[in-house]
């Protein structure tokens, strides 16, 4: 009797659980509780969680208020949407009264689904506005009064005491600088962000940060202290002695706003009463590293008890605040830490530490010694063939730490104003450091990890690992080419090549949105897009095909991955200007002028091999990228409803393709350049008439086979190579490239021990010597663009409508893989494709997020009897359609977790 009632209870609970509809992961502008937004129409997002298959949102209701306690009671509502019949749950715009500076807004959402379930009101979330107008700033810009403060001088420190007369209810710090800053209040570091205020085109767009400093301030005497450093603002950039790009003098803008318990306010600002001095950071630079003399530390300098008797004054200067913007992208933070894998002495007698992973960040060490003892740390990505420390590929970047001990106990050090790309460090110190005293810290933009790919092949898994670490190391506030040598610039070509893969691995919506605004800001008036963003190379370093197209490709990719239409609106003029430039400069509809990098770092063997080299005509490439950018304009104009532009780009697209065929293709369909890249681009961008595509694909596949299943593509051809092969039915050839272990291939570096993606296919040659040190980075993400194909085709998980509102799971088993899994946290929730092939039985586990619909394409299933969860697939309720397509079966279905099984020939 008892067990029966227990069973009933259990069944009731289960069905209740299945019925429940809840909401999670509430975001505002892609962020969790953002502080300091300057977006005046913020957008909300949420995910539905439901135990029932086929769940769609039927309606939502939003409410916003400025009092969280009242809000949950449904009182003092500032704006409520009322029930809105809609399935939109991503980037839903706020439509209440105009937002105001500093205000914190609380919000909640509730939803109803198509199964008759309603959620409760969600937890309360908030967003807080930053300072929307230049006049919100009452702080003055201040600069140190110290003499000789412009080149290689110690980092200035600025400080002041201040009093807060009453009990503080909340306190915010709004702060930015010329140069980098690190800020302290009452002896404590403010926040956990590094390299602030980040890197933007400073003179046009300078970010400020907002910190909740309520817990750092106190009723009574307080003090603030800020250290400034050259950073990107005036440090060496791009090449030696190229400095002071944005200005010569470091400066601080600091505004702390305290709200007392009684509601009154106090504003503490940087002004001429502050004092300045120097301290332990005697030199710092992005490429240089950092010199720190602990003997020069000024104990308690950011405490109110400190006497700044011998400090200098500061200058208050008039600087326009019109360029100030709130931070939008994820801040740079510390992430993984690594303990030494080994400590060893090299043949040259140097003590080196191996962390086992090429990473970006720095080393934290603990040391004991006498005052004046020096610890010097150098960084390297690789050891040479003999096992010696190798730094030639850092070029002029010194990448060193010089730490001078103060003596008298254990000292712990981490740099403040630099970062390094390294796997190894060489440490020189009077007292040998032991492994437990050394830790490597990875530092990069704090993007939410969203995707993962694994398979039965450990080498492919290592490749995926390397791609992800390439992304971590090179997404340090801007997307950089490399993180170690005297470069580390926002190279546009590299970024566009990798952008689609990047959207799988991590949420890069705000990261790219911020950088694209800099792209627009730095774009030359006539539409040319600089090689690097922020542009530190001058306006003439611009307009290279495949690089400048970052202006169109990345906004489109970000829009498509996150259904973020605003990025298209935001970038539209910039996109249009770049395409307009090509139109204006073209002759006879050919874009065939000026300098282009071309298919950068394509396969170019030495003369002593067979003399072949995969050179692709640069103007042929340019014509393809022009067509692609025009196609993107056409698509974008459609999304934004710009009819005239749709017409304009439709006409141009035809002209561009016609001119391509005339100039670059023989009537037989053969291209004037017989390279893989030529065929890949022509096919990927639909340059050829449909009737000539199959033969072109065949030529491409043949070319791969002629090179013994090796790729020969560079930066521009590589991202689309496997995708094009799959699209035209040569997935087997694509697999042969993916699995190729000899040079040139993706797995060759893996076999050579790579833990990140290399700049060149043969950074380390087969005889273990290095490629030319002038250009040989071991952490360059561009070739990692293959990650996209692994998610999209091997596991088969991809979007068919923007933002994964509709998705497809169409695995393509092959390459002797026994299994592959792609997992992706979409804006609707987790999606997954996991297939395995075991003893002739194919199993696919598919997870489809609530509020989306999907198609599943089961390979080689046409003649098989397919079951889902043990039931004949035809009887599964949430499968709304099933069709045979050649040897596959295509299903249309709603959200949920499904497991399909059937016999498959191997
Ligand atoms: C960078 C690249 C960049 C290239 C331009 C190199 O120095 O590291 O990755 O795209 O120049 O061709």
From TrEMBL:
All copies of domain Alpha-L-rhamnosidase concanavalin-like, residue ranges: 346-444
Record carries keyword Signal: yes
Top-rank EC class of the record's enzyme: hydrolase
PANTHER family: ALPHA-RHAMNOSIDASE (EUROFUNG), ALPHA-RHAMNOSIDASE (EUROFUNG)-RELATED
InterPro entries according to UniProt: 6-hairpin_glycosidase_sf (IPR008928), 6hp_glycosidase-like_sf (IPR012341), Alpha_rhamnosid (IPR016007), Bac_rhamnosid6H (IPR035396), Bac_rhamnosid_C (IPR035398), Bac_rhamnosid_N (IPR013737), Ig-like_fold (IPR013783), Rhamnosid_concanavalin (IPR008902)
Signal sequence interval, chain numbering: 1-18
EC number of this enzyme: 3.2.1.40
Domain Alpha-L-rhamnosidase C-terminal: 796-869
Highest taxon of source: Bacteria
Entry protein name: alpha-L-rhamnosidase
Catalytic function, reaction form: Hydrolysis of terminal non-reducing alpha-L-rhamnose residues in alpha-L-rhamnosides
GO BP annotations listed: carbohydrate metabolic process
Pfam families: Bac_rhamnosid, Bac_rhamnosid6H, Bac_rhamnosid_C, Bac_rhamnosid_N, Ig_Rha78A_N
Keywords: Hydrolase, Signal
Domain named Alpha-L-rhamnosidase six-hairpin glycosidase: residues: 450-794
Gene3D superfamilies, A to Z: 1.50.10.10, Galactose-binding domain-like, Immunoglobulins, Maltose phosphorylase, domain 3
Naturally occurring in which organism (per UniProt): Chryseolinea serpens
Domain Bacterial alpha-L-rhamnosidase N-terminal: 166-336
GO molecular function terms listed in the Swiss-Prot or TrEMBL record: alpha-L-rhamnosidase activity
